[in-house]
Amino acid sequence: MTKTAMRGALIVLEGCDRSGKTTQSSKLVEALNNLKIPAKKISFPDRSTPIGSIINDYLSKKIDLPDKSVHLLFSANRWELEPEIRKQIEAGVTLIVDRYSYSGVVFTSAKQSIDFEWCCGPENGLPKPDLVMFLKLPISDIIKRSGFGDERYENIEFQNKVDKNYEKFKTDNFIEVDAAQDISVLTKNLLEQVVKTIDSVKNQKLDKLVL
Ligand code: Z5A
């Protein structure tokens, strides 16, 4: 394979609220670009699209929606970006994604009477991440970080259920990382994993997600 045919990697950061995903995804993109590795950041929900704007109104408690319909909106928000994700990866750009399908499943299934398997359905077929890094932080630390408690879902009881639900995703490409580390130490540790992954998948086909 020629150098130009090498693809980028699809890297996802997951975790409970305030665990540092936004901070780390920006720092990882910056660090990769410094190493001359093409990389961009994507965040879900993407609140800039028409679907994302409804999600934003829901999260900021301006509107209420039935649980299953809002779940499908979060998933549709990812499908909106699916062609762009594939295009970027094929063009050799590594994408650092702040939340993905795993968030969709763990948050909705933390609600009463919504089946985990039902939640997985709409996610299947999306591009499969090459690496998912779960930023694990005790809830007692999360509530001390600034901004906790403003939006829907930002309460201790709910975040505990979400944290437990993440346990169901322990597969080989899903790794847990201690998010209580100092910001720069954490970036260094995550970067190591990301660079290794970029190298190991560069000649492989991007798979479809099956949850
Ligand atoms: N949701 C869903 O239900 N279904 C879906 O499909 C998706 C999402 C995709 C909004 O998500 C909600 O949508 C979310 C899940 C649900 N609900 N909750 N909870 P969001 O991603 O837009 O918002 P968020 O989860 O609330 O993320 P966040 O607020 O952006 O948090 P974060 O990105 O993990 O953390 P941060 O902004 O990087 O850091 C938070 C603070 O901690 C900040 O002051 C930092 O300076 C500080 N920080 C960060 N790292 C450290 C370290 N290492 N040490 C000390 N302090 C730190």
From TrEMBL:
Q: Which gene is transcribed and translated to give this protein?
A: LOC112681959
Q: Does the keyword ATP-binding belong to this entry? A: yes
- All copies of the Thymidylate kinase-like domain together span 13-186
Keywords recorded for this protein, A-Z: ATP-binding, Kinase, Nucleotide biosynthesis, Nucleotide-binding, Transferase
Q: Which family does it belong to?
A: Belongs to the thymidylate kinase family.
The GO molecular function terms of this record are:
ATP binding; dTMP kinase activity; nucleoside diphosphate kinase activity
> What EC class does the entry list?
transferase
Q: What is this protein called?
A: Thymidylate kinase
Annotated metabolic or biological route of this protein? Pyrimidine metabolism; dTTP biosynthesis
Which PROSITE patterns would you find in this protein's record? THYMIDYLATE_KINASE (PS01331)
